[in-house]
Amino acid sequence: MSVTFNDLAEYIFPDVKETISDLEKRFPKRNLKDGALVVRFAPSPTGFLHLGSLFTSLINSKIAKDTGGVFYVRLEDTDTKREISGSAKELIDQLSYFDIIPDEGYLGDKEKGDYGPYQQSHRADIYKVCIKELMKQGRAYPCFCTAKELEEIREVQEANKEIPGYYGGYAVYRNTTPEEALEKIKAGTPYVIRFRSLGNHLNKIVIHDLIRGDIAIAENDLDVVIMKSDGLPTYHFAHAVDDHFMRTTTVIRGEEWIASAPIHVDLFNALGFPLVNYAHLPVIMKLDNGNKRKLSKRKDPEASVALFIEKGFPKEALEAYLMSIANSNFEEWTLENKTFDISKFPFTFEKMSLDGVLFDQDKLNYFSKEIIASWSANEVYNRLLEWSKQYDKVLYEHIENTKEFTTSILNIERGGEKARKDFISYSDVYPSIKFFFNDEYENIVKDGYPFNDFMEPGLIKEVLEDFMSSNDYSLPNDLWFNTVKELGVRHKFAESNKIFKQNKDAYKGHVGDVAEMIRVAVTGSKNSPNLHSVLTILGKEEVNRRINKAIENLK
RNA sequence: GGCCCCAUGGUCAAGAGGUUUAAGACGAGACCCUCUCAAGGUCUAAUCUCGGGUUCGAUUCCCGAUGGGGUCACCA
Length: 555
What we know:
Layout: H1 5-12, H2 20-26, E1 38-41, H3 51-67, E2 70-73, H4 87-97, E3 104-106, E4 111-112, H5 124-136, E5 140-143, H6 147-159, H7 178-186, E6 192-195, E7 204-209, E8 213-218, E9 225-227, H8 235-245, E10 250-254, H9 261-271, E11 277-281, E12 284-288, E13 291-294, H10 305-311, H11 315-326, H12 330-337, E14 357-358, H13 361-373, H14 377-391, H15 393-399, H16 403-410, H17 429-433, H18 438-445, H19 457-470, H20 477-490, E15 493-494, H21 497-502, E16 509-510, H22 511-523, H23 531-538, H24 540-554
Parallel strand pairs: 1-2, 2-3, 10-11, 12-14, 15-16
Antiparallel strand pairs: 3-4, 5-6, 6-9, 7-8, 12-13
This protein binds one RNA strand of 76 nucleotides through α6, β8, α8, β13 and α12.
């Protein structure tokens, strides 16, 4: 009695009783309103979340929200060798940092939704149902090739300048009888299960892409591995099965998947599943020795999203930057609508760029600067507190219990048309405001003050002493500055740079020099935010203490 | 190398046959403003890869070349 594929399938999967049509019932079609898209982000837990993944998940999440659909996360953890423990949870945490909260799916410590499990490693039974059925139809078969044999086949193909891969005459176990296969399996020979493709490489198929339009590409004829020797499915197979039974409508993924799309089409067809819609996103690239290349998880740690968070880029800045890559009209939209809120932006696939984009740090900086400047001092304080708690202990200790003081500092020149825009990230804040804190001030000036060498110490002392005894900075900024001019004039300084330039010999300097003396004494630096604000916040007592210290240092 | 995708300034890009002496933003430079640094204002430089077609006319359509990118695993 000869062995059939049916027997082989029963032998390999004795416990599998379900059929594909059972699964169809188990995972019924979703009840969604017209136009609602079901999309997913399907990361593999092999390392940190990088910019490209964030980009993809942002677009997916955005589309689901905009269409009233579903955005879910599926963990593609079928590569046990490359898996990094803990990275899956981290991925979810980082996504939530960007307010990308899945409607369902794998959520780090739990799952949510009716189409699970959402971890591929927990879906073995589902894949096996499909494989068993494929095998019964003769569309799947065991392959006993070793890595070495596969290597040899490839070498021959390369030498003959043929297309590499397991297909046609090179598919050595394609025509093995079920009987022989069964014998080998019984003998304990390791094997994988391959898909039997009926495709012809010479035929072209057309794949419709929501972003690119029709893509004509050679039909698949590869007998790809669908189940690895460890019993887990490969990406291609899991993609077809999962996206079908999770009722995904639209697969939005990176451009690097276009090349394998024919395999997916082949698989969907063989399984009798209607094809999902595809949208292939452009990849984010970087310049490497003058060459552009795809941002790589392994080679480019600087593309790690965690690093951007650590450096203190607001989530809104990353989101805005990524959206400007997705739809370049986003930037003009922000200008018109005076908001960087991507949730209000009308994103479309049509506006999507087709070419890979170079990562542009300057542009990210720009968004970040604008966004931080648009916040209230209170908002900045809260963000700073949250960020510093984890990434900058020194800052945290200084601001934790000084909310009012710190907020007043952060409020200097904030708001209005000419708002101060000097913070690219949270990490820029402290260096520019630390002098306000007494211990930091002491530290800054312990090696001296950066007074200009061409100013005589005696003169500086004279001016500063006069300032202390005469100045009243309870006046409004403009009037106050007039008193600084008067102070300068008393000591032979020109009241403006313009006047000084007209006759330099008549003056010892100009009012800018006077202001600088005060600034250097009080802040320990030649640069600072608005002097009047600084003095007001510090208060007369502290200002005078600092000035006296500076004078002391001049001797 | 085969196959696929792409092709406007340094970067992101408007443009969808004549209305373009080719928008805008970031970046760069200059000037103005100014008590410093930022910010703000004004201005400048900088682009249609190259050949063939089609057309009265091509940045725009077609073909080819060139260039860039992607992909060719028991990785996703």
